[in-house]
Amino acid sequence: MSQMISTFILVLTAVISIFLSQAFPRISVSYISMVGGAIIYLIPVLGHHVAAFNSDIFIGMIVAPLLFFEGQATRLNAVGQELRHIIQTAVILVVLCLILAGFGVWAAAGVSLPLAFILAAISTPTDATAMESVTNGLRSPQKEGVFLKMESLFNDASGIILLNMAALWYVNGYINYQETIVDFLISAVGGALFGFVAAWVMTLFRQILMRTSYNSLNAQILLYVVTPFVLYYASEAIRVSGIIAVVCAGLVSNAEAQRSRLLNPRQIHLGFDLENMITEIFNSIVFVVLGFMFLKIIADERITTNSLNWLGIGVLLYLINVMVRYVFGRLRLHFSNRSGWIFALGGVHGAVTLALAYTLADMPVRHGDFNLVLMAESTLIILSLLVPTVVFRFILPKDVTNRDAATELAEVRTTMVRQAIEAVQKMYLPENVKTSVIFDLRAQKQKTRVRDFTKAWMDVVRHPDFTGAEKELEMRAFINAFAQERQYLDMISQSEVKYQDYIFQLYNEILLAESLVIGPAIDRHEEDPNDI
């Protein structure tokens, strides 16, 4: 019961944050979610019901599906084209950051060398989810964006393996280089192979089902949703990287969706919608948890009574990581000065970094050192979010905001609906059918009031349903109206290039609306053919 209450509180806060982000479009939903998490902690009746942080559950139940869906949005051949750069950023760059940050913290902060390398290892993974929060309302350059996305997909496994090496060094007092390299190869290569093979087997199984009479839409969607959870925990059970496995599985699923969208359009469309919903909610939950944990860590008296050594370490970790990334981007990736800074500052840290810090709770690490790691890594995460949020406002061009697009699309909607209504007005229809269709078309402008809806709802309740003939006429009226709307949008999309993506989204809304009008009408006629 306590886990259910805790989950409900986090999900509800995430949902409220998403609504608030629509009211305050200039503020990223990630920051709103973090504030929401902090508020949960400040309200005892809520904070006391939030379960203790568990890094295994957090990575397996939240981070793994997010990485799976992130991989699913990435074409497999794009990974093949960027394989050299992936190895450079997810392996070579990670090792360089580890070495320089580890020795830098050891020399400047006076901590033991193994503890310094633990701090450095935790600071290496970057977060694609957190990156989106610092570019809100800005247009990210494509080249640097591809590098950052590919890096964040694959460097989590490197950070986990290097953390295990540093933790063993901390406990045993020595480093086993040969064992570390072997573990890295087994974990990374094994995770990739397991992810590809398991995802391919599941893909073939789904494809076979889709071509038989045994296929079930709901069961297929559920099978797709549980894939990242099953693959992650199965990979960890056989001691290979679950993170790499779910990313590779997502890459396989991308190609599957590309070649199956017309085999069963309803299934693919519903799968995409469910994926978008899960991704949006889980992303918000990640930052709700971050906000809650930040305040919980800072408010812990056992931490705040210590020196501010953790603050200096956190700042030092961030500065070293940024400078190493900048130099690496200029020398190895051949970036310009501006691109180098975008790449350096774009290495944002988030959920994975916090989760890795909490894995030390299950290791024989001294309590004082554990608290030091938590505070230092929390400082690193906050800096990696705040600094690029400010700097990118000066070096990245502004993107079309949702508010600007909404203003432009309002005019498009008005003209579009007016043409559709004119087409319906010219049709010979019973007055009750014409009134009903025109009311629904006007609702597309999102200008109908709740009072209008209430009146229309009362009419539906009082009067009998349309006859079969009236339903047929209603459906054909909508088909005619939607055809006029699509024709208008097709013309507009060729001229309004700036808002083209938004216009295509509106086009998609019309297609969905038409499927709602046609589908239920056909079903009703099939159930009662004598009604016509």
From TrEMBL:
Pfam families: Na_H_Exchanger (PF00999). Residues 12-393 form the Cation/H+ exchanger transmembrane domain. It is a multi-pass membrane protein. One of its GO terms (molecular function) is sodium:proton antiporter activity. It is found in: Cell membrane. GO terms for biological process: regulation of intracellular pH; sodium ion import across plasma membrane. Keywords: Cell membrane, Ion transport, Membrane, Sodium, Sodium transport, Transmembrane, Transmembrane helix, Transport. This is Na(+) H(+) antiporter. The chain crosses the membrane at residues 39-69, 90-109, 153-172, 184-205, 217-234, 240-257, 278-298, 310-328, 340-360, 372-396. The keyword Ion transport applies. InterPro entries: Cation/H_exchanger_CPA1, Cation/H_exchanger_TM. GO terms for cellular component: plasma membrane.
